[in-house]
Amino acid sequence: MKLLFDQHFSYRLVNQLEDLFPGSNQVRLLGMARHSDSDIWYYAQYHGYVLVTRDEDLAELGILRGAPPKIVWVRIGNSRTSDVERLLRQSFEDIAELVASPERVILEIFDRPAN
């Protein structure tokens, strides 16, 4: 289960989450920081990524077009990379269920208190 982080997330998440999401990437690392949402969506689809975004427009593409790719819509606003990492770690099982579900396209995750 590999993730593709959009430009709203730090490239550092790729290494920080390698233990849970090996093979993940970030659009800036791919030279796609200025590409359209549609280009990013198609890239994720073609390369088998789960697309992680804060962008409502990308989430709507998932709703309109269906999967693949599956979409994880992170709803925590501006936050530190460590907060995003924590939230994605806490949401690992939910993300795995999204990927396994033939019906589900999008998972919205919200900030959770640290354990």
What does this structure look like?
With 115 residues, the protein is of the alpha/beta class. It has one domain (3-110). It contains 5 helices and 5 strands, in the order E-H-E-H-E-H-E-H-H-E. The chain has helices spanning 12-16, 37-47, 56-65, 81-90, 92-100, and strands at 3-5, 25-26, 50-53, 71-75, 106-110. The protein has a 5-stranded parallel β-sheet with strand order 2-1-3-4-5, with helices on both faces. Helix 1 (12-16) links the parallel strand 1 and strand 2 (25-26). It starts with a strand and ends in a 5-residue tail after the last strand.
Regions with little confidence, pLDDT below 50 for 5+ residues:
none
Q: Determine the N-to-C terminus distance.
A: 24 Å
Shape descriptor reads globular
Q: What gyration radius follows from the Cα positions, in whole Å?
A: 13 Å
Fraction of residues in H or I helices:
25-40%
Mean pLDDT: 92
DSSP helical segment count: 5
Residues in β-strands, percent: 15-25%
- Give the strand tally: 5
Numbering strands along the chain, what is their spatial order in the largest sheet?
A: 2-1-3-4-5
Judged by helices, strands and strand pairing, the structural class is alpha/beta
Oligomer: single chain
User: Major sheet, described briefly?
Assistant: 5 strands, parallel
H-E string: EHEHEHEHHE
Domain count: the total is 1
Write the SSE topology:
Blueprint: E1 3-5, H1 12-16, E2 25-26, H2 37-47, E3 50-53, H3 56-65, E4 71-75, H4 81-90, H5 92-100, E5 106-110
Parallel strand pairs: 1-2, 1-3, 3-4, 4-5
